[in-house]
């Protein structure tokens, strides 16, 4: 009797039992549905009367069949198999996983914002336009720039938008340029965006201090250089102290400076990219302004520019008019980069965060982020030495190479062992220029008590590396699943319920 | 904490930054305020959005569908909202499995075997499809039907400035793509058709498939995923790539974002798939587990050789879509699509009987239709807003002027009906339009 019953058995104690959760498809029992739709009172009509037969499906579209209770149970069990900022700390360098204030969720959920159709005319959306214009003004003040586009849907989209702005600027001067310079420590999105922007990448090495090698930069510069993409503080968490000299050298050959805002949270309210000589700046709103990461998006990647680039910005742009607000197309706009106006609800969250923090609060974000990173760096100095032995900014690149040479335990093993201690892993093997890199970014939102707990956990792992290296290589053991077979997933792709199961 | 690191003040942390670039005097923005005070601003902005209170008949890729309490409750779980990208699969099985289920659902909707874990929105999904077609064929010429949403076409043109792709828009004739108007030559990378197109028209896609076969390009179909419950899937029409806008599945209108880029391909294109993809595997003890896979395609590994720079996608919106589709199930999805079609056809029949209103094209449609008005559509939208109705989208505003999709777009209104619209609301629409259109 049991064997013949449709559907699947689910265990309601996933954290204790480490049992596999059935998929929605496996849980389905034909005929079930949770949906309750409005009674419209509109007279029914046959499909065949409305749509010619050549367009109609040959067979019904089968998805799943669940009751509301089935669905709630399934999704709730999935959430119990998921780490999150609200649960614990992500000391992830470069990615800035900080606490997201709940107030901003309420703002994004306000139906007076969330239920507005993006194609409604400006006269009906004055509140949204004022909100977007206000955010633009704040972002200009924060970056020291003259204009901004809110359209890019994520940081990488912002990068590509910035490169297209660079291209439009040079083209408007009849200037054909071929190359964009990137330090070897850059995020992978930088070189990928350069290629899609129609430029060639010239990679320059970092010097022994982890900074741009000014001589190498000067050697790479020439009249065919469209610009340079820099992250400052850079991806090893160090401030490029020679930024004024770098800016001067790039501007001298007619190139533009692009600021990758991935690390803006380290200097917000303390240093502005515009004052460092940058011409184009993208911001990752989740990093600096705490919009939630969502498990990998949605983000938002506004791009701010210096006065000489404002006329090229994507359009239409929200604008403050003599009376009220409207949309305006910049004179020589590169065009749209988003289907509508950008990730508006993410933008609303960011504005709410900025308004609550204000000038003073944003500067404190940077100060406390840098304080926490330096405290953790110092606290771990005996266990995981810093790759560059001097004060860092908001993140610290440490190395597990002493542990590896002594015990064979690698950075990845240390990271996986941390999962068993209730912390998310730090970023491993990035930046590429540091051996056995473990990159920590505690963010300003974690307390010193949490940092101490993290440091103690790492010390205990380092001790076990000597006594029980095999045990560490088998970590994690207390997570919903153990180490996964990534090679199998790539060798036999099963990306849907309907594909054959890998073996 | 400061003394532990040998510093005297917070300012010392920044002492190594050259004085010349440090900001003197703080940011030129207002001081911080408490949350209830900022909430007052938000309320003021919200109240100034007159569109929020209107009965919505606007579509164009953004639809007013039912989002039930259960979907709102589940999709706002902080385990999803505040999670990181699932690079550590041992502590990210929740997001990974939800994305696997999402991919499975998109695969079924598109009729293609492999879907990715989402892209930013429909428009940027189209850009990625063109880049994929370039990678697959080595060619750069893109034949794009004028039936593709005007904003999507504009976004594709923007990014073509970097990739160097030549985008040729092929005009519509009576709502249907006139492929014979495409310039000759078999150097085509992609043929892009919309199903239904942005004016609501359903055109048989065998013509587009034939053009792709003759010219050697991939067939990219931009399709409405709700209509897919009733009409043939992109895969059934022979598409190589499916792109779509997934907002309809559990995401509010949101003033245009965050939305959801749907993307699916045939098996032969899987190594060129942009963005993330989740695959099934096993853990060290042989239990089923999920993991992001085929990572070698991605930008952080391939760097300047990558064919896409996408890093972040729209995970939370994709998870929401999976939950909404779970709520709907087979029966609910079909019911929603049918209710949209029934409402749209009823309204179409009634408004096209009004003087001053005519069909803008003669093609069949599913849930959205275009009408030609005696008065400029912008004026009609404004007048009907005064009566509590968002009448639709002014096609002239969408196209931004003359366009190869339709003549005189300023007089064309695009109208959409969802399953939330009632008989009484339709009656009010017809009465009001009859009053204002003359």
Describe the structure.
The complex is a heterodimer of chains A (503) and B (438). Chain A is α/β, with parallel strands linked by helices. Chain A has helices spanning 14-17, 24-27, 47-50, 68-79, 102-109, 111-114, 126-143, 155-172, 189-196, 214-220, 243-252, 285-288, 344-379, 401-407, 411-420, 448-467, 469-473, 486-491; strands at residues 147-149, 179-183, 200-204, 225-230, 256-261, 280-283, 303-305, 317-320, 325-328, 396-399, 427-428, 437-440. Chain A folds into two domains: 103-357, Aspartate Aminotransferase, domain 2 (3-Layer(aba) Sandwich), CATH 3.40.640.10; 364-487, Aspartate Aminotransferase, domain 1, CATH 3.90.1150.10. Chain A has 18 helices and twelve strands. In chain A, the strands form three sheets. Chain A has a seven-stranded mixed sheet, with helices on both faces. In chain A, strands 10-12-11 form a three-stranded antiparallel sheet, covered by helices on one side. Chain A has a two-stranded antiparallel ribbon with strand order 8-9. In chain A, helix 5 (102-109) runs antiparallel to helix 13 (344-379), helix 7 (126-143) runs parallel beside helix 13 (344-379) and helix 8 (155-172) packs across helix 9 (189-196). The radius of gyration of chain A is 26 Å and the shape is globular. By secondary structure, chain B is of the alpha/beta class. Chain B has two domains: 51-68 and 329-436, Aspartate Aminotransferase, domain 1; 69-322, Aspartate Aminotransferase, domain 2, CATH 3.40.640. Chain B has helices at 35-47, 69-75, 78-81, 93-110, 122-137, 150-163, 206-215, 299-302, 315-351, 377-385, 395-399, 423-436; strands at 55-56, 114-115, 141-145, 166-170, 172-173, 176-177, 188-195, 218-223, 241-245, 261-265, 278-282, 288-292, 357-359, 368-373, 389-390, 393-394, 412-416. In chain B, strand 11 (278-282) and strand 12 form a beta hairpin. In chain B, helix 5 (122-137) packs across helix 6. The longest helix of chain B has 37 residues, at 315-351. The interface between A and B is large, with 201 and 200 residues.
């Amino acid at each position: 009797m049991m064997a013949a019953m449709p559907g699947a058995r689910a265990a309601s104690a996933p954290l204790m039992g480490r049992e596999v959760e059935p998929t929605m498809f496996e849980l389905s029992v034909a005929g079930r549905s949770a949906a309750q739709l409005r009674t419209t009172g509109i007279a029914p009509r046959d499909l065949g009367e409305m749509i010619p037969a050549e367009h109609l499906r040959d067979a019904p579209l089968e998805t799943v069949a669940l009751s509301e209770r089935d669905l709630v149970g399934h999704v709730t069990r999935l959430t119990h198999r998921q780490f999150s900022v609200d649960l614990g700390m992500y000391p992830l360098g470069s990615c800035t996983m900080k606490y997201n204030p709940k107030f901003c969720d309420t703002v994004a959920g306000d139906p007076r914002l969330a239920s507005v159709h993006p194609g409604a005319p400006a006269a009906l959306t004055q509140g949204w336009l004022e909100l977007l214009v206000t955010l633009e003004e704040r972002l200009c003040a924060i970056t020291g720039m003259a204009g901004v586009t809110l359209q890019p849907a994520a940081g990488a989209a912002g990068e590509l938008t910035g490169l297209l702005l660079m291209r439009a600027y040079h083209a408007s001067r009849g200037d054909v340029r071929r190359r964009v310079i990137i330090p070897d420590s850059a995020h992978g999105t930088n070189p990928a965006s350069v290629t899609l922007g129609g430029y060639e990448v010239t990679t320059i090495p970092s010097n022994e201090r982890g900074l741009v090698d000014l001589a190498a930069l000067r050697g790479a510069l020439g009249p065919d250089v469209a610009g340079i993409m820099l992250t400052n503080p850079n991806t090893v968490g160090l401030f490029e102290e020679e930024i004024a000299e770098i800016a001067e050298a790039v501007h001298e050959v007619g190139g533009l400076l692009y600021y990758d805002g991935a690390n803006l949270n380290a200097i917000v309210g303390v240093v502005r990219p515009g004052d460092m000589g940058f011409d184009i700046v993208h911001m990752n709103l989740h990093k600096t302004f705490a919009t939630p990461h969502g498990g990998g998006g949605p983000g938002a990647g506004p791009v701010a520019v210096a006065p000489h680039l404002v006329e090229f910005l994507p359009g239409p742009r929200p604008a403050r008019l003599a009376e009220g607000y409207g949309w305006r197309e910049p004179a020589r706009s590169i065009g749209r980069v988003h289907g509508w106006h950008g990730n508006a609800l993410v933008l609303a969250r960011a504005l709410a965060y900025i308004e609550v923090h204000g000038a003073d609060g944003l500067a404190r974000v940077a100060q406390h982020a840098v304080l926490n990173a330096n405290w953790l760096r110092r606290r771990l100095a005996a266990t995981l030495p810093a790759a560059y032995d001097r004060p860092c900014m908001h993140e610290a690149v440490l190395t597990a190479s002493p542990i590896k040479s002594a015990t064979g335990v690698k950075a990845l093993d240390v990271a996986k062992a941390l999962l068993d201690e209730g912390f998310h892993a730090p970023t491993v093997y990035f930046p590429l220029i540091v051996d056995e890199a473990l990159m920590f970014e505690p963010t300003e939102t974690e307390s010193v008590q949490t940092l101490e707990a993290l440091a103690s956990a790492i010390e205990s792992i380092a001790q076990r590396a000597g006594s029980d290296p095999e045990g560490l290589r088998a970590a994690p053991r207390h997570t919903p699943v153990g180490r996964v077979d990534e090679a199998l997933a790539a060798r036999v792709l099963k990306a849907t319920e309907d594909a054959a199961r890998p073996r | 904490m400061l003394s532990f690191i040998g510093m005297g003040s917070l300012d010392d942390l920044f002492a190594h930054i050259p004085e010349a670039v440090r900001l003197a005097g703080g940011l030129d923005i207002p001081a911080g305020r408490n949350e209830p005070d900022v909430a007052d601003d938000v309320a003021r902005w919200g109240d100034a959005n007159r569109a929020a209170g209107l009965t919505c008949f606007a579509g164009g890729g953004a639809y007013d569908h039912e989002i039930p309490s259960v979907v709102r409750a589940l999709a706002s779980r902080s385990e999803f909202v505040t999670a990181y990208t699932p690079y550590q699969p041992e502590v990210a099985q929740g997001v990974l499995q939800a994305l696997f289920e999402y991919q499975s659902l998109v695969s079924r909707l598109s009729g293609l075997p492999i879907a990715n874990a989402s892209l930013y929105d429909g428009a940027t999904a189209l850009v990625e499809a063109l880049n994929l077609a370039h990678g697959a064929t080595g060619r750069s010429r893109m034949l794009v039907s004028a039936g593709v949403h005007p904003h999507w076409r504009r976004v594709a043109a923007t990014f073509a400035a970097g990739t160097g792709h030549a985008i040729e828009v092929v005009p519509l004739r009576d709502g249907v793509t006139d492929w014979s108007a495409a310039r000759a030559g078999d150097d085509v990378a992609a043929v892009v058709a919309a199903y239904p197109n942005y004016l609501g028209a359903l055109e048989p896609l065998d013509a587009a498939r034939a053009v792709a076969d003759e010219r050697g390009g991939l067939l990219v179909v931009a399709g409405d995923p709700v209509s897919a419950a009733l009409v043939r899937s992109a895969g059934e029409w022979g598409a190589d790539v499916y792109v779509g806008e997934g907002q309809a599945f559990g995401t509010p209108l949101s003033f245009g974002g965050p939305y959801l880029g749907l993307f699916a391909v045939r098996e032969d294109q899987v190594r060129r798939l942009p963005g993330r993809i989740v695959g099934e595997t096993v853990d060290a003890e042989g239990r089923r587990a999920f993991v992001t896979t085929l990572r070698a395609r991605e930008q952080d590994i391939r760097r300047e050789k990558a064919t896409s720079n996408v890093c972040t996608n729209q995970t939370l919106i994709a998870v929401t879509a999976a939950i909404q589709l779970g709520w709907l199930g087979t029966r609910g999805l079909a019911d929603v699509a049918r209710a949209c079609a029934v409402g749209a056809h009823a309204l179409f029949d009634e408004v096209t009987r009004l003087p001053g209103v005519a069909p803008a094209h003669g093609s069949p449609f599913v849930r959205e239709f275009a009408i030609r008005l005696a008065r400029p559509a912008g004026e009609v939208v404004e007048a009907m807003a005064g009566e509590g109705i968002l009448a639709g989208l002014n096609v002239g505003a969408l196209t931004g002027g003359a366009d190869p999709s339709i003549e005189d777009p300023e007089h064309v209104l695009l109208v959409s009906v969802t399953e939330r619209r009632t008989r009484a609301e339709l009656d009010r629409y017809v009465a009001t339009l009859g009053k204002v259109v003359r």
